[in-house]
Structure to design on (504 residues):
Protein backbone atom coordinates (compact mmCIF):
# COMPACT_ATOMS: atom_id res chain seq x y z
CA UNK A 1 0.00 0.00 0.00
CA UNK A 2 1.52 3.29 -1.11
CA UNK A 3 1.05 6.89 -0.06
CA UNK A 4 -1.80 8.96 -1.43
CA UNK A 5 -1.15 10.32 -4.91
CA UNK A 6 -0.32 14.03 -4.87
CA UNK A 7 -3.29 14.71 -7.12
CA UNK A 8 -5.62 13.44 -4.37
CA UNK A 9 -7.32 16.22 -2.41
CA UNK A 10 -6.75 16.30 1.35
CA UNK A 11 -9.19 17.98 3.72
CA UNK A 12 -8.58 19.39 7.18
CA UNK A 13 -11.58 19.97 9.44
CA UNK A 14 -10.92 22.43 12.25
CA UNK A 15 -8.79 25.45 11.48
CA UNK A 16 -7.09 26.27 14.77
CA UNK A 17 -3.34 26.17 15.20
CA UNK A 18 -3.05 22.42 14.65
CA UNK A 19 -5.48 22.34 11.77
CA UNK A 20 -3.65 25.12 9.95
CA UNK A 21 -0.32 23.42 10.57
CA UNK A 22 -1.51 20.07 9.19
CA UNK A 23 -3.04 21.79 6.18
CA UNK A 24 0.26 23.56 5.50
CA UNK A 25 2.16 20.27 5.65
CA UNK A 26 -0.16 18.61 3.11
CA UNK A 27 -0.16 21.71 0.92
CA UNK A 28 3.63 22.07 0.77
CA UNK A 29 3.87 18.33 0.03
CA UNK A 30 1.88 18.99 -3.15
CA UNK A 31 -1.75 18.06 -2.44
CA UNK A 32 -4.85 20.12 -3.18
CA UNK A 33 -6.14 21.04 0.29
CA UNK A 34 -9.66 21.87 1.42
CA UNK A 35 -10.28 23.66 4.71
CA UNK A 36 -13.52 23.43 6.64
CA UNK A 37 -14.60 24.92 9.95
CA UNK A 38 -18.04 24.89 11.52
CA UNK A 39 -17.71 28.59 12.36
CA UNK A 40 -18.57 30.67 9.27
CA UNK A 41 -15.62 32.59 7.86
CA UNK A 42 -12.98 30.68 9.87
CA UNK A 43 -11.85 28.55 6.93
CA UNK A 44 -11.22 31.67 4.81
CA UNK A 45 -9.30 33.29 7.67
CA UNK A 46 -7.23 30.12 8.06
CA UNK A 47 -6.44 30.08 4.35
CA UNK A 48 -5.20 33.66 4.58
CA UNK A 49 -3.08 32.81 7.62
CA UNK A 50 -1.52 29.83 5.82
CA UNK A 51 -0.81 32.06 2.85
CA UNK A 52 1.01 34.48 5.12
CA UNK A 53 3.13 31.64 6.48
CA UNK A 54 3.99 30.61 2.96
CA UNK A 55 5.17 34.17 2.36
CA UNK A 56 7.50 33.86 5.34
CA UNK A 57 8.89 30.60 3.98
CA UNK A 58 9.74 32.43 0.77
CA UNK A 59 11.45 35.19 2.77
CA UNK A 60 13.52 32.55 4.56
CA UNK A 61 14.34 30.92 1.20
CA UNK A 62 12.70 27.66 2.24
CA UNK A 63 10.18 27.92 -0.58
CA UNK A 64 10.36 29.51 -4.00
CA UNK A 65 7.97 32.22 -5.07
CA UNK A 66 6.61 29.93 -7.76
CA UNK A 67 6.13 27.15 -5.22
CA UNK A 68 4.19 29.51 -2.97
CA UNK A 69 1.93 30.63 -5.80
CA UNK A 70 1.09 27.09 -6.91
CA UNK A 71 0.48 26.04 -3.31
CA UNK A 72 -1.89 28.94 -2.76
CA UNK A 73 -3.78 27.94 -5.89
CA UNK A 74 -4.30 24.45 -4.42
CA UNK A 75 -5.74 25.78 -1.12
CA UNK A 76 -9.51 26.13 -1.02
CA UNK A 77 -11.90 26.89 1.88
CA UNK A 78 -15.09 24.81 1.87
CA UNK A 79 -18.44 26.30 2.80
CA UNK A 80 -19.82 23.00 4.12
CA UNK A 81 -18.88 19.34 4.37
CA UNK A 82 -20.18 18.57 0.89
CA UNK A 83 -17.17 20.49 -0.42
CA UNK A 84 -15.01 17.60 0.83
CA UNK A 85 -16.84 14.90 -1.16
CA UNK A 86 -13.96 14.06 -3.51
CA UNK A 87 -11.20 14.04 -0.87
CA UNK A 88 -9.02 10.96 -0.42
CA UNK A 89 -8.08 11.87 3.16
CA UNK A 90 -9.84 13.96 5.79
CA UNK A 91 -7.92 14.91 8.94
CA UNK A 92 -9.89 16.20 11.91
CA UNK A 93 -8.44 18.73 14.38
CA UNK A 94 -11.50 19.92 16.29
CA UNK A 95 -12.43 20.16 19.97
CA UNK A 96 -11.12 17.29 22.16
CA UNK A 97 -14.55 15.89 22.93
CA UNK A 98 -15.57 12.38 22.00
CA UNK A 99 -19.17 13.27 21.11
CA UNK A 100 -18.09 16.17 18.90
CA UNK A 101 -15.62 14.03 16.98
CA UNK A 102 -18.03 11.10 16.58
CA UNK A 103 -20.76 13.38 15.26
CA UNK A 104 -18.32 14.96 12.79
CA UNK A 105 -17.13 11.65 11.37
CA UNK A 106 -20.66 10.26 11.06
CA UNK A 107 -21.51 13.35 9.01
CA UNK A 108 -18.37 12.92 6.91
CA UNK A 109 -19.31 9.32 6.10
CA UNK A 110 -22.48 10.60 4.46
CA UNK A 111 -20.38 12.82 2.19
CA UNK A 112 -17.10 11.13 1.25
CA UNK A 113 -16.56 7.87 -0.60
CA UNK A 114 -15.99 4.59 1.21
CA UNK A 115 -12.36 4.59 0.03
CA UNK A 116 -11.64 7.95 1.72
CA UNK A 117 -9.22 7.64 4.61
CA UNK A 118 -10.53 9.32 7.77
CA UNK A 119 -8.07 10.45 10.44
CA UNK A 120 -8.17 12.13 13.83
CA UNK A 121 -5.40 14.27 15.28
CA UNK A 122 -6.56 13.56 18.83
CA UNK A 123 -3.86 13.48 21.50
CA UNK A 124 -5.95 12.21 24.40
CA UNK A 125 -9.07 10.41 23.20
CA UNK A 126 -9.41 6.79 22.15
CA UNK A 127 -9.10 6.29 18.40
CA UNK A 128 -11.12 3.10 18.84
CA UNK A 129 -13.96 4.97 20.55
CA UNK A 130 -14.12 7.66 17.87
CA UNK A 131 -14.01 5.11 15.04
CA UNK A 132 -16.51 2.83 16.74
CA UNK A 133 -19.32 5.17 15.73
CA UNK A 134 -18.56 4.78 12.02
CA UNK A 135 -20.23 2.66 9.37
CA UNK A 136 -16.80 1.76 7.93
CA UNK A 137 -14.45 1.82 10.93
CA UNK A 138 -11.68 0.05 9.06
CA UNK A 139 -10.69 3.19 7.17
CA UNK A 140 -10.34 5.23 10.38
CA UNK A 141 -6.90 5.95 11.87
CA UNK A 142 -5.13 8.33 14.24
CA UNK A 143 -2.66 10.80 12.75
CA UNK A 144 -1.23 12.60 15.77
CA UNK A 145 0.95 15.52 14.67
CA UNK A 146 2.99 17.49 17.17
CA UNK A 147 2.78 21.26 17.49
CA UNK A 148 3.95 23.13 15.45
CA UNK A 149 3.09 20.57 12.78
CA UNK A 150 5.11 22.19 9.95
CA UNK A 151 8.30 22.07 12.07
CA UNK A 152 8.18 18.96 14.24
CA UNK A 153 8.91 15.75 12.31
CA UNK A 154 7.07 13.17 14.40
CA UNK A 155 3.65 11.76 13.55
CA UNK A 156 2.12 8.95 15.62
CA UNK A 157 0.08 6.71 13.32
CA UNK A 158 -2.43 5.08 15.65
CA UNK A 159 -4.38 1.95 14.80
CA UNK A 160 -7.67 1.62 16.64
CA UNK A 161 -9.27 -1.73 17.38
CA UNK A 162 -11.23 -1.56 14.13
CA UNK A 163 -8.54 -0.03 11.88
CA UNK A 164 -7.62 -2.10 8.83
CA UNK A 165 -3.91 -2.75 8.38
CA UNK A 166 -4.11 -1.34 4.84
CA UNK A 167 -5.51 1.96 6.14
CA UNK A 168 -2.78 2.28 8.77
CA UNK A 169 -0.12 1.53 6.16
CA UNK A 170 -1.51 4.11 3.76
CA UNK A 171 -1.61 6.73 6.51
CA UNK A 172 1.96 5.83 7.54
CA UNK A 173 3.32 6.05 3.99
CA UNK A 174 1.46 9.31 3.35
CA UNK A 175 2.96 10.91 6.46
CA UNK A 176 6.40 9.78 5.32
CA UNK A 177 5.80 11.16 1.83
CA UNK A 178 4.98 14.49 3.49
CA UNK A 179 8.50 14.57 4.92
CA UNK A 180 7.49 13.42 8.39
CA UNK A 181 8.89 10.61 10.53
CA UNK A 182 5.93 8.35 11.32
CA UNK A 183 5.85 5.76 14.09
CA UNK A 184 3.22 3.04 14.17
CA UNK A 185 1.45 2.47 17.47
CA UNK A 186 -1.58 0.82 18.97
CA UNK A 187 -4.48 2.74 20.46
CA UNK A 188 -3.47 3.08 24.09
CA UNK A 189 -3.91 6.03 26.48
CA UNK A 190 -1.36 8.68 25.55
CA UNK A 191 -0.21 6.62 22.54
CA UNK A 192 3.63 6.56 22.75
CA UNK A 193 4.89 10.03 23.68
CA UNK A 194 2.21 11.19 26.11
CA UNK A 195 2.25 7.81 27.84
CA UNK A 196 5.99 7.44 28.31
CA UNK A 197 6.69 11.13 29.04
CA UNK A 198 4.53 11.30 32.19
CA UNK A 199 7.40 10.58 34.65
CA UNK A 200 9.43 13.51 33.29
CA UNK A 201 6.84 15.86 34.76
CA UNK A 202 5.69 13.67 37.65
CA UNK A 203 9.11 13.11 39.23
CA UNK A 204 10.05 16.79 39.07
CA UNK A 205 6.78 17.62 40.79
CA UNK A 206 7.37 14.87 43.38
CA UNK A 207 10.79 16.31 44.26
CA UNK A 208 9.21 19.76 44.60
CA UNK A 209 6.32 18.44 46.71
CA UNK A 210 8.86 16.72 49.01
CA UNK A 211 10.44 20.18 49.51
CA UNK A 212 13.76 18.80 48.31
CA UNK A 213 14.39 21.42 45.61
CA UNK A 214 12.79 24.47 44.02
CA UNK A 215 11.67 24.51 40.37
CA UNK A 216 14.73 26.43 39.13
CA UNK A 217 17.10 23.91 40.70
CA UNK A 218 15.17 20.87 39.44
CA UNK A 219 15.10 22.32 35.92
CA UNK A 220 18.81 23.12 35.98
CA UNK A 221 19.68 19.58 37.07
CA UNK A 222 17.47 18.01 34.38
CA UNK A 223 19.10 20.16 31.71
CA UNK A 224 22.70 20.31 32.84
CA UNK A 225 23.04 16.80 34.23
CA UNK A 226 20.26 14.84 32.53
CA UNK A 227 20.82 16.33 29.09
CA UNK A 228 17.16 17.24 28.56
CA UNK A 229 16.47 20.23 26.34
CA UNK A 230 14.25 21.89 28.95
CA UNK A 231 13.42 21.26 32.57
CA UNK A 232 9.99 19.97 33.56
CA UNK A 233 8.78 23.20 35.18
CA UNK A 234 9.82 25.48 32.33
CA UNK A 235 8.43 23.04 29.78
CA UNK A 236 5.03 22.83 31.44
CA UNK A 237 4.96 26.63 31.61
CA UNK A 238 5.53 26.64 27.85
CA UNK A 239 2.93 23.94 27.14
CA UNK A 240 0.41 25.47 29.53
CA UNK A 241 -0.17 24.09 33.02
CA UNK A 242 -3.82 23.42 32.25
CA UNK A 243 -2.97 21.53 29.07
CA UNK A 244 -0.23 19.46 30.68
CA UNK A 245 -2.37 18.61 33.70
CA UNK A 246 -5.32 17.73 31.48
CA UNK A 247 -3.23 15.22 29.51
CA UNK A 248 -1.86 13.73 32.75
CA UNK A 249 -5.37 13.42 34.19
CA UNK A 250 -6.70 11.90 30.96
CA UNK A 251 -3.98 9.23 30.86
CA UNK A 252 -4.45 8.50 34.58
CA UNK A 253 -8.21 8.05 34.17
CA UNK A 254 -7.82 5.98 31.01
CA UNK A 255 -5.51 3.60 32.88
CA UNK A 256 -8.15 3.23 35.64
CA UNK A 257 -6.23 5.55 38.00
CA UNK A 258 -3.02 3.55 37.80
CA UNK A 259 -0.60 4.93 40.43
CA UNK A 260 2.15 5.24 37.81
CA UNK A 261 0.23 8.11 36.20
CA UNK A 262 -1.16 9.90 39.28
CA UNK A 263 -1.52 13.67 38.75
CA UNK A 264 0.16 16.21 41.03
CA UNK A 265 -1.71 18.14 43.69
CA UNK A 266 0.84 20.97 43.40
CA UNK A 267 0.09 21.35 39.70
CA UNK A 268 -3.66 21.20 40.40
CA UNK A 269 -3.33 24.11 42.82
CA UNK A 270 -1.30 26.07 40.28
CA UNK A 271 -4.01 25.60 37.65
CA UNK A 272 -6.75 26.50 40.12
CA UNK A 273 -4.91 29.75 40.89
CA UNK A 274 -4.93 30.70 37.21
CA UNK A 275 -1.16 30.52 36.87
CA UNK A 276 -1.12 28.64 33.59
CA UNK A 277 2.39 29.48 32.41
CA UNK A 278 3.58 31.81 29.69
CA UNK A 279 0.12 32.37 28.25
CA UNK A 280 -1.17 33.81 31.54
CA UNK A 281 2.06 35.59 32.48
CA UNK A 282 2.79 33.38 35.48
CA UNK A 283 3.20 29.68 36.14
CA UNK A 284 6.04 28.10 38.03
CA UNK A 285 7.99 31.13 36.82
CA UNK A 286 7.05 34.79 36.40
CA UNK A 287 6.95 35.53 32.66
CA UNK A 288 5.78 39.12 32.94
CA UNK A 289 7.95 41.85 31.49
CA UNK A 290 10.96 42.68 33.64
CA UNK A 291 10.53 39.68 35.95
CA UNK A 292 13.81 38.18 37.11
CA UNK A 293 14.33 34.46 36.53
CA UNK A 294 15.21 32.68 39.79
CA UNK A 295 18.65 31.10 39.91
CA UNK A 296 19.15 27.42 40.78
CA UNK A 297 20.76 26.60 44.08
CA UNK A 298 24.53 26.41 43.54
CA UNK A 299 26.95 25.47 46.31
CA UNK A 300 29.77 27.76 47.36
CA UNK A 301 33.32 26.74 46.34
CA UNK A 302 34.94 23.97 48.36
CA UNK A 303 38.40 22.44 48.18
CA UNK A 304 38.86 19.08 46.43
CA UNK A 305 39.85 16.00 48.44
CA UNK A 306 43.46 14.85 48.26
CA UNK A 307 42.44 11.44 47.02
CA UNK A 308 39.44 9.20 46.34
CA UNK A 309 39.18 5.46 46.88
CA UNK A 310 37.02 3.75 44.24
CA UNK A 311 35.61 0.77 46.08
CA UNK A 312 34.23 -1.65 43.51
CA UNK A 313 32.38 -1.05 40.24
CA UNK A 314 30.67 2.38 40.11
CA UNK A 315 28.23 1.14 37.45
CA UNK A 316 26.71 3.99 35.41
CA UNK A 317 29.11 6.39 37.18
CA UNK A 318 32.24 4.56 35.99
CA UNK A 319 33.13 7.46 33.70
CA UNK A 320 33.88 9.59 36.74
CA UNK A 321 37.09 7.66 37.49
CA UNK A 322 38.93 9.02 34.45
CA UNK A 323 37.61 12.54 35.08
CA UNK A 324 38.86 12.48 38.68
CA UNK A 325 42.32 11.47 37.53
CA UNK A 326 42.32 14.17 34.84
CA UNK A 327 41.46 16.74 37.52
CA UNK A 328 44.64 15.83 39.38
CA UNK A 329 42.98 14.00 42.25
CA UNK A 330 44.66 10.73 43.18
CA UNK A 331 42.51 7.65 42.57
CA UNK A 332 43.04 4.49 44.61
CA UNK A 333 41.14 1.43 43.48
CA UNK A 334 39.84 -1.42 45.61
CA UNK A 335 37.73 -4.39 44.61
CA UNK A 336 34.72 -6.11 46.06
CA UNK A 337 32.94 -3.02 47.36
CA UNK A 338 29.60 -1.44 46.49
CA UNK A 339 30.93 0.98 43.88
CA UNK A 340 31.19 3.93 46.22
CA UNK A 341 33.80 6.69 46.17
CA UNK A 342 35.40 6.80 49.64
CA UNK A 343 36.68 10.23 50.70
CA UNK A 344 39.65 11.09 52.97
CA UNK A 345 37.40 11.96 55.91
CA UNK A 346 35.97 8.44 55.90
CA UNK A 347 32.62 9.33 54.35
CA UNK A 348 31.53 8.10 50.95
CA UNK A 349 29.93 9.27 47.74
CA UNK A 350 27.40 6.92 46.19
CA UNK A 351 25.40 7.11 43.00
CA UNK A 352 21.67 7.49 43.67
CA UNK A 353 20.21 4.00 44.01
CA UNK A 354 16.70 4.55 45.34
CA UNK A 355 17.68 4.68 49.00
CA UNK A 356 17.86 7.78 51.15
CA UNK A 357 21.20 9.05 52.41
CA UNK A 358 20.02 9.08 56.02
CA UNK A 359 19.76 5.29 56.16
CA UNK A 360 23.35 4.80 54.97
CA UNK A 361 25.29 6.78 57.55
CA UNK A 362 28.13 9.09 56.51
CA UNK A 363 27.18 9.07 52.82
CA UNK A 364 26.39 11.73 50.22
CA UNK A 365 24.38 10.63 47.20
CA UNK A 366 25.06 12.09 43.75
CA UNK A 367 22.72 12.09 40.80
CA UNK A 368 22.86 10.32 37.47
CA UNK A 369 24.22 12.23 34.45
CA UNK A 370 23.65 11.54 30.78
CA UNK A 371 27.41 11.97 30.33
CA UNK A 372 29.55 12.88 33.31
CA UNK A 373 32.17 14.42 31.04
CA UNK A 374 29.84 16.91 29.41
CA UNK A 375 27.50 17.48 32.38
CA UNK A 376 27.89 20.95 33.86
CA UNK A 377 25.91 20.45 37.07
CA UNK A 378 25.50 17.63 39.58
CA UNK A 379 22.92 17.28 42.32
CA UNK A 380 24.04 16.01 45.73
CA UNK A 381 21.90 14.89 48.66
CA UNK A 382 23.17 14.81 52.19
CA UNK A 383 21.47 14.16 55.52
CA UNK A 384 21.90 14.66 59.22
CA UNK A 385 23.87 11.42 59.39
CA UNK A 386 26.57 12.69 57.01
CA UNK A 387 29.38 14.81 58.42
CA UNK A 388 29.89 18.37 57.12
CA UNK A 389 33.36 17.28 55.98
CA UNK A 390 31.91 14.55 53.75
CA UNK A 391 29.56 17.02 52.07
CA UNK A 392 32.38 19.55 51.64
CA UNK A 393 34.72 16.96 50.13
CA UNK A 394 31.98 15.68 47.82
CA UNK A 395 31.16 19.22 46.71
CA UNK A 396 34.82 20.07 46.16
CA UNK A 397 35.39 16.90 44.16
CA UNK A 398 32.69 17.67 41.61
CA UNK A 399 33.72 21.32 41.48
CA UNK A 400 37.26 20.15 40.67
CA UNK A 401 35.74 18.30 37.71
CA UNK A 402 34.32 21.60 36.46
CA UNK A 403 30.75 21.00 37.62
CA UNK A 404 28.38 23.29 39.45
CA UNK A 405 26.89 21.56 42.47
CA UNK A 406 23.30 21.75 43.67
CA UNK A 407 22.74 20.35 47.15
CA UNK A 408 19.13 19.23 47.50
CA UNK A 409 17.05 17.48 50.14
CA UNK A 410 17.48 13.81 50.91
CA UNK A 411 15.03 12.32 48.41
CA UNK A 412 15.57 8.75 47.22
CA UNK A 413 16.69 8.53 43.61
CA UNK A 414 17.48 12.26 43.51
CA UNK A 415 16.19 13.91 40.29
CA UNK A 416 17.66 12.54 37.06
CA UNK A 417 18.09 8.94 38.19
CA UNK A 418 14.48 8.40 39.30
CA UNK A 419 13.13 10.23 36.25
CA UNK A 420 15.14 8.26 33.70
CA UNK A 421 14.50 4.94 35.46
CA UNK A 422 10.73 5.46 35.33
CA UNK A 423 10.83 6.55 31.69
CA UNK A 424 12.85 3.45 30.78
CA UNK A 425 10.40 1.23 32.68
CA UNK A 426 7.33 2.69 30.96
CA UNK A 427 9.05 2.36 27.59
CA UNK A 428 9.86 -1.32 28.08
CA UNK A 429 6.35 -1.95 29.38
CA UNK A 430 4.85 -0.29 26.29
CA UNK A 431 7.03 -2.35 23.95
CA UNK A 432 6.14 -5.59 25.72
CA UNK A 433 2.43 -4.79 25.40
CA UNK A 434 2.69 -4.19 21.65
CA UNK A 435 2.09 -0.45 21.80
CA UNK A 436 5.04 0.17 19.46
CA UNK A 437 8.38 -1.37 18.58
CA UNK A 438 11.47 -0.50 20.60
CA UNK A 439 12.85 1.40 17.62
CA UNK A 440 9.65 3.41 17.20
CA UNK A 441 9.46 4.16 20.93
CA UNK A 442 12.99 5.57 20.88
CA UNK A 443 12.30 7.54 17.70
CA UNK A 444 9.09 8.97 19.14
CA UNK A 445 10.70 10.13 22.37
CA UNK A 446 13.71 11.68 20.64
CA UNK A 447 11.68 13.52 18.02
CA UNK A 448 8.45 14.15 19.92
CA UNK A 449 9.89 15.54 23.15
CA UNK A 450 13.59 15.97 22.31
CA UNK A 451 14.96 13.40 24.75
CA UNK A 452 18.74 13.10 24.42
CA UNK A 453 18.44 9.31 24.07
CA UNK A 454 15.60 6.99 23.31
CA UNK A 455 14.52 5.35 26.58
CA UNK A 456 15.11 1.78 25.42
CA UNK A 457 18.65 2.66 24.32
CA UNK A 458 19.13 4.64 27.54
CA UNK A 459 18.11 1.64 29.62
CA UNK A 460 20.57 -0.60 27.79
CA UNK A 461 23.36 1.92 28.33
CA UNK A 462 22.66 2.19 32.06
CA UNK A 463 22.12 -1.52 32.55
CA UNK A 464 18.61 -2.84 33.08
CA UNK A 465 19.59 -4.48 36.36
CA UNK A 466 20.59 -1.05 37.73
CA UNK A 467 17.28 0.47 36.59
CA UNK A 468 15.35 -2.45 38.08
CA UNK A 469 17.10 -2.26 41.45
CA UNK A 470 16.73 1.53 41.72
CA UNK A 471 12.98 1.31 41.10
CA UNK A 472 12.74 -1.60 43.52
CA UNK A 473 14.34 0.49 46.26
CA UNK A 474 12.02 3.41 45.49
CA UNK A 475 9.05 1.04 45.63
CA UNK A 476 10.09 -0.15 49.08
CA UNK A 477 10.04 3.44 50.29
CA UNK A 478 6.78 4.37 48.56
CA UNK A 479 4.77 1.16 48.08
CA UNK A 480 1.88 2.79 46.23
CA UNK A 481 2.72 1.04 42.97
CA UNK A 482 4.10 4.22 41.40
CA UNK A 483 7.65 2.83 41.34
CA UNK A 484 6.98 -0.89 41.11
CA UNK A 485 9.10 -2.26 38.23
CA UNK A 486 7.04 -3.57 35.35
CA UNK A 487 7.04 -7.26 34.49
CA UNK A 488 8.84 -6.37 31.26
CA UNK A 489 11.70 -4.71 33.15
CA UNK A 490 11.77 -7.59 35.66
CA UNK A 491 12.15 -10.14 32.87
CA UNK A 492 14.72 -8.20 30.89
CA UNK A 493 16.81 -7.24 33.91
CA UNK A 494 17.08 -10.88 34.94
CA UNK A 495 17.65 -12.03 31.37
CA UNK A 496 20.47 -9.49 31.00
CA UNK A 497 22.13 -11.01 34.06
CA UNK A 498 22.34 -14.23 32.07
CA UNK A 499 23.52 -12.43 28.94
CA UNK A 500 20.21 -12.98 27.18
CA UNK A 501 18.57 -9.56 27.50
CA UNK A 502 16.52 -8.21 24.64
CA UNK A 503 14.49 -5.03 24.21
CA UNK A 504 12.54 -5.90 21.08
Amino acid sequence: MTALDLSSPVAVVGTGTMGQGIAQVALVAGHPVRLYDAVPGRAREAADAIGARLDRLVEKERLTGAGRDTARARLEPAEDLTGLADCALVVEAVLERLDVKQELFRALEDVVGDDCLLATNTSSLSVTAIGGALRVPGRFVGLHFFNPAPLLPLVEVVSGFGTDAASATRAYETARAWGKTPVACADTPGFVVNRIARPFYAEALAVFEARAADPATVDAVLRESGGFRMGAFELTDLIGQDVNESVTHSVWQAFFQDARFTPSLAQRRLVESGRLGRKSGRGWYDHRGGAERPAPHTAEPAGPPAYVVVDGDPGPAAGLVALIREAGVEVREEHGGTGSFVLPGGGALHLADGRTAVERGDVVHFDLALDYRTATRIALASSATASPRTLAEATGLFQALGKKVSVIGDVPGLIVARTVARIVDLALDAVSRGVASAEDVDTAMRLGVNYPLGPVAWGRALGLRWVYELLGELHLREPSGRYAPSLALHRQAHASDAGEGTCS
